[in-house]
Amino acid sequence: MYILLVHQAFAALDEPGGTRHAELARCLAQRGHRVTVIASQVSYLTGSSHPTEHSPEEESGVLIHHAYTYSGLHKSFVHRVFSFFSFMLSSFITGFRVKNVDLVWGTSPPIFQGVTAWALARFKRAPFLFEVRDLWPAFAVGVGVLRNPLLIRLSEWLEKFLYHRADLVMVNSPGFIEHVQRGGARRVELVPNGADPRMFDPLADGGDFRKAHGLQGGFIALYAGAHGLSNDLGVVLAAANLLRDRPEISIVLLGDGKDKPALQVQAAEMGLENVNFIPPIAKASMGAALAAANACIAILKPIPLYATVYPNKVFDYMAAGRPVLLAIEGVIRQVVADARAGIFIPPGNPQALADAIRWLADHPQESLEMGQRGRKVVEEEFDRAMWAERLALIFESL
Q: Which of 5, 7, 37, 395 has its CA 20 to 30 A from that of 263?
């Protein structure tokens, strides 16, 4: 099959950001399918620009076109909307030139690129697969980013429009299934987030990464990912403040996002010498970063809708054999609890997070066993290659 993926936030393995689609596309290419991706020239995580190319790049057998996108992604909500619409239009023009496509794969958020994928599928008389990675606009309303009643109604109409017109709606978390079915999805398939365990060595000690970032010795609790409104990293700083009496414990915040400058200012004002900010790194380097950690933090704001998510980072942490400090309710809590792979912390509770970090630092053997159990569950149930095989069968059924 020839598959066309429209994905503004696509990140290759040599770039920072979520690489679910790069890994799935690589597996599909290895299976013999052709995959072309239309991605933004602007990094969704960092806002840095990637030059547009006259000819597509190739990465692991996957062709990647970088379409023009307005670069003010992280300036404000209005600028973000301009960025979304600019990519929606430019990706349609780019996709229109891609010939002989058998299936068009759109993904949300941002939801507007779903319109591009739907339109391209209709023009090319190809099936349209719509993937839901977050429940937008529900999440945007929940965190207060989207408040205007008219915009909310229009967004909900667009969401249902795409659900109704998709030949198949794919979700990455079982927590999304009921929502998309209520929205009118006719056929729903689950291809959950996961990890490629071959990218991580649970026995590595991360010594080189520690040395490169001045992190030698001690216990490291690491957060890797976006520094945004939803990630509630102010709670992590508050927990670090409660750990001042344990100078051997360090908190590392790895990544980038709109809120990172404010978090750095807040940490400096609080005098948090036990907090280290590290710039984002390529996914191909993430194995070394997680190997340097003794435990890893996954956290979201205490919003009921976030109980539906399967965050990619949790599966990376488990694949790396590191215990998870999980401040997220719901379906992902069930995964970690069933695996006995970490400690649950009530979202929004810095004292509980600090206490859990202390406990892991004081119980290295139990911490090691948690990591080993998490790694085993990823290998058996959430291996990205295994789910790519399932995805290929879904594509072939269309």
A: 7
